[in-house]
Amino acid sequence: MSGLRILLADDQTLVRAAFAMLVESAPDMAVVGQAGTGREAVRLARETRPDLVVMDIRMPDLDGIEATRLIAADDELTGVRVLVLTTYDTDENIVEALRAGASGFLVKDTRPADLLDAIRTIAAGEALLSPGPTARLIARFLRGPAGPPPVGGPEGLSEREREVLALVARGLTNTEIAETLGLSPLTAKTHVSRIMGKLGARDRAQLVIVAYESGLVSPGTT
């Protein structure tokens, strides 16, 4: 099977069917499984080894956050990315999903074409955070008493790398970072990769968490 392999996890049968039709309509994607509970999503992820799981947060048996945590912690599922979908953009569980290992989130009323673009973006190794609620959610919840950052802090970064990290936290792509700082896209990508290596971050979503938890980015700066 060529193209991106997608696993869909949502407890609503009609929603899953609609997502499946949408994914299958894309020439570069295919649905390899559908799960109605979080536990089933974890099982199917292990069986099908998808490139990406589209994960609803609220599901019976095991919610999407715990399912995401189990997938992210499974050494045999390294490289399987999770895109979390939520009904409301004020859902504080989105932050917990990012902590658990999700590479991004979207609200369910996202346009179909944007969902497909989001799948491609995350599968390519980028983080995808709905731009509207991102700053509000992360500023509100990540700065709370939830323990230390999951990876290293930005103390060892150069001034340029700290600038790039702050822009990553705002949800900018490599191309947008390059335009903002007057760099080439390749240089921006190199900076992001180097930052991830220095901080031990798995993906850009973790960089966002580090930026807010360390205080490099704070409410009102995004």
Could you explain the architecture of this structure?
This protein has 222 residues and is an alpha/beta fold. It is 49% helix and 14% strand. The chain is built from 10 helices and 6 strands; from the N terminus they run E-H-E-H-E-H-E-H-E-H-E-H-H-H-H-H. It has helices at 13-25, 38-48, 64-73, 93-100, 112-123, 131-141, 159-169, 174-181, 185-199, 204-213, and strands spanning 4-9, 29-35, 52-56, 81-86, 104-107, 128-129. It has a 6-stranded parallel sheet, sandwiched between helices. Helix 7 (159-169) crosses helix 9 (185-199). The radius of gyration is 17 Å and the shape is globular. The N and C termini lie far apart (41 Å). Residues 145-149 have low confidence and may be disordered.
Topology:
Blueprint: E1 4-9, H1 13-25, E2 29-35, H2 38-48, E3 52-56, H3 64-73, E4 81-86, H4 93-100, E5 104-107, H5 112-123, E6 128-129, H6 131-141, H7 159-169, H8 174-181, H9 185-199, H10 204-213
Parallel strand pairs: 1-2, 1-3, 3-4, 4-5, 5-6
Provide key terms for this protein.
alpha/beta, 10 helices, 6-stranded parallel sheet, single chain, 222 residues
